[in-house]
Specification:
By secondary structure, the chain is an alpha+beta fold. Helices cover 50% and strands 23% of the residues. The structure holds ligand C2E and calcium ion (2 copies).
């Protein structure tokens, strides 16, 4: 029965009893009064008091009973609540729980237990219970026993339950825990552990403080360090010292930025051996993004791999500068083309001006050192995204991406030109260089790697032509010019080989038209491309390195022909032009001397014409060469005077014998007072310095008269003679 009802009934019956007791007591008092009238010796009041006392005691007893009942009721209520909470709690538990008696009968169980029983069937549960009881009986002294049960229902995966039976007096508690996931996790972990323990890849784990926390057996195999030797240390314990601080800084920075780093690294083993390894480091982060561990995995390069690596380096990198080589550059450029970025892809070709001269004069050793320094200077000036390579010799190539093509290119090239202009300190010697750059733009004139590179090269040639130390962006006109120059080069090689270069002579005269000398001027009529002006083929020869061969041939032909003419007029002198690079050639002096001696001509009758540009390009070597040539008796003339620097200081330093006033002054000599004044000044100066002066390009009588008036007395020009073949010159003296 419901305890509340019992309590209510008890209360009502108590009240009824009390009421009936009180009415009983009233009636009893009346009865006693009537009855004791017969016995006057007995005091009725005493009897009544006794009955009243008894009544009060009975009421008290009833009230006490009622209080107890009430207390019992409250306790039972609390118990009920407690049970309910307990049941709720048990149902919430992820474990299956049941209470059994000594006869293995289940009395209480939670939801999880009921679920499990439903899943596998009560029979199966009973079997487990039976087995657990057996185990418990078998090990009499134990309080509890455990059993692992695996079962499968239908096609569902196998479920693993860990059952436990506890004894508590005559009661038994059965608990079952689903450990399917835990077992799978354990399996996985033990597989990973086995892999890490058995892999030939070295594994090293550090904490966030970068101190080593774990190493695997392969780590010990490779490095020779056991785990306990390195634990707590920094990975720098393996450092070989081959990589600088910057290397490690970059490495940690990349790890911070990208969460991982990969690359080759030289480390040191316990026995001191240095070895190359491929290292991959990953930073593990917690939910708030803080690094918790760094995991390093590495494998040592085997001898075979080292050879492969070496071959790869050889195949893709330049041995001297360590920059990428042509092959790698081409591959990278193709990738950039394929990437199809929104920016403009450009190829920049860089050629060092006059590098050959440095190599020839200072030796290849210095040349190589300079190239390495140039390579690193270019690399420093490049951005990370630029792809730089050594194209060969003194040529470098860079692929860049710019947003605003022309302005971007200009900024890039100017920055590099400026940077390369800063002197280099090689072997305690300061060397200054300049560079010529050519740029081609993908999509504008070139649509593949080879076109891009070729056009950049063409543009670079154009920069050279336009005065060096500058950059040019490719244009189709450059291409046309280059094609022409290439054809000239091919034909010129053949012409030199077959001695097809001729020399004409232009007489130089006194005021009275008497011939005092001749200027040898090279002539080339090619059977395929026809007549090529000397300025053009000499420039091509300069650019292609044919100049020395060509100049020797011209000098030889000129002297041979002059020898015949000189027999007709022994006082005659010969002027021969020297090109820019000739005067910087260390072998020039010996070559000229040999040819002159071979023809039996006295060097004093030869005047070597040099231009001011020659002086400016390498003053040191030019001064040395002119000094030596003068010592041998050759005379030196400064050609095209007035067009270049026209500095007076070197006229004396170089001990110049003659200056030739450039023919450009003739053009408006009659109308321009300025030109007249300049010629006047040059003539006056040459008199003071005791230097012979000759004016070239005299075409008219008026020009001649004006020049005579100014004070000139030596002339060369069409007004007198045009350049002529040697036999016609000979006729001038014979005929
Ligand atoms: P250059 O040394 O100034 O030679 C004089 C040039 O002026 C020659 O041209 C000659 O034909 C031209 N000339 C002479 N008188 C007159 C005149 O009255 N009016 C005009 N308009 N021109 C006149 P060319 O033979 O065409 O030679 C051009 C340049 O080619 C030479 O200028 C020289 O720099 C170079 N060159 C010629 N032959 C040789 C050579 O054997 N070796 C080297 N290195 N350069 C040479
Ligand atoms: Ca000349
Ligand atoms: Ca000249």
């Amino acid at each position: 029965m419901n305890p509340t009802r019992i309590l209510r009934l008890t209360l009502i019956s108590c009240i009824l009893v009390i009421v009936s007791l009180i009415s009983m007591q009233i009636q009893l008092s009346q009865l006693i009064t009537q009855y004791l009238h017969q016995y006057p010796g007995i005091d009725a009041r005493h009897l009544k008091d006794i009955i009243l006392g008894l009544l009060i005691a009975a009421i008290m007893l009833l009230l006490f009973g009622q209080c107890q009942a009430r207390r019992l009721y409250i306790v039972s209520l609390k118990l009920k609540k407690h049970h309910a909470r307990h049941a709720h709690l048990l149902n919430k538990l992820p474990y299956a729980i049941a209470e059994l008696d000594a006869h293995k009968v289940i009395h209480n169980s939670n939801d999880a237990f009921r679920q499990v029983s439903q899943l596998q069937g009560l029979l199966s549960i009973q079997q487990q219970i039976e087995q657990l009881f057996n185990q418990l009986e078998h090990n009499n002294y134990q309080q509890s026993t455990t059993l692992l049960q695996r079962f499968q229902t239908g096609e569902a995966p196998v479920i693993s339950i860990e059952w436990q039976l506890h004894r508590s007096g005559n009661h038994f508690f059965l608990s079952g825990r689903n450990i399917t996931q835990q077992l799978a996790e354990q399996d996985r972990l033990s597989i990973s552990e086995k892999i890490i323990e058995s892999t030939p890849i070295g594994v090293l784990v550090t904490g966030p403080d970068k101190r080593i926390q774990y190493t695997n057996p392969a780590f010990e195999q490779v490095t020779g360090f056991s785990s306990h030797e390195v634990e707590g240390h920094f990975p720098s314990i393996l450092s070989s010292g081959k990589q600088g601080e910057d290397f490690y800084k970059d490495m940690y920075q990349t790890m911070e930025d990208e969460g991982c780093w990969q690359g080759e690294i030289w480390n040191r083993k316990r026995n001191g051996d240095i070895y190359l390894e491929w290292l991959s480091v990953t930073a593990l982060k917690d939910e708030s993004g803080n690094n918790t561990h760094y995991i390093g995995m590495f494998s040592e390069f085997t001898a075979q791999e080292l050879v492969k690596e070496k071959l790869r380096t050889l195949a893709y990198y330049d041995g001297l500068t360590s920059l990428a080589n042509r092959t790698l550059f081409n591959e990278r450029l193709q990738c950039q083309i394929n990437a199809n970025t929104k920016k403009k892809l450009c190829v920049v070709f860089i050629d060092i001006d006059g590098f050959k001269r440095i190599n020839d004069t200072l030796g290849h050793h210095i040349g190589d050192q300079l190239l390495v320094a140039i390579a690193s200077r270019i690399k420093e000036t490049c951005r990370e995204a630029d792809s730089l390579a050594r194209w060969g010799g003194d040529e470098f190539i860079i692929a860049i991406e710019v947003s605003d093509s022309h302005r971007g290119i200009s900024t890039f090239c100017t920055k590099h030109l400026q940077s390369l202009k800063q002197p280099f300190l090689i072997n305690g010697r300061e060397l200054s260089i300049t560079a010529s750059m050519g740029v081609s733009i993908y999509g504008d004139d070139a649509n593949n790697t080879s076109e891009l590179i070729r056009n950049a090269d063409i543009a670079m040639f154009q920069s050279k032509k336009l005065g060096k130390n500058r950059f040019e962006i490719f244009s189709p006109a450059h291409h046309q010019e280059l094609m022409e120059s290439m054809e000239i080069e091919n034909r010129l090689r053949l012409a030199i080989k077959e001695n097809l270069i001729d020399v004409h002579f232009q007489p130089q005269v006194w005021q009275d038209a008497k011939i005092c000398g001749l200027e040898a001027l090279a002539r080339w009529h090619d059977p395929v491309i026809g007549q090529v002006p000397p300025q053009k083929f000499i420039q091509v020869a300069e650019e292609t390195g044919l100049i020395n061969e060509l100049s020797q041939l011209i000098y030889h032909v000129a002297l041979k022909k002059f020898k015949t003419i000189q027999t007709l007029n022994p006082a005659l002198g010969l002027s021969v032009n020297l090109s820019v690079s000739q005067l910087q050639d260390v072998n020039l002096v010996t070559t000229l001397k040999q040819i002159t001696d071979a023809q039996g001509i006295n060097p004093s009758s030869i005047k070597l014409e040099i231009t001011e540009d020659i002086l400016m390009s390498d003053l040191e070597q030019s001064v040395r060469n002119t000094g030596l040539l003068k010592e041998m008796g050759f005379q030196i003339a400064l050609d095209d005077f007035g067009t270049g620097y026209s500095s007076l200081s070197y006229l004396k330093d170089l001990d110049i014998d003659e200056i030739k006033i450039d023919r450009s002054f003739m053009q408006d000599l009659l109308s321009s007072e300025r030109n007249k004044a300049i010629i006047q000044a040059i003539v006056a100066m040459s008199k003071v310095l005791d230097i012979h002066c000759i004016v070239e390009g005299v075409e008219t009588e008026e020009q001649l008269n004006k020049l005579i008036q100014i004070g000139c007395n030596n002339f060369q020009g069409y007004y007198f003679y045009k350049p002529m073949p040697s036999d016609e010159i000979s006729k001038l003296f014979t005929g």
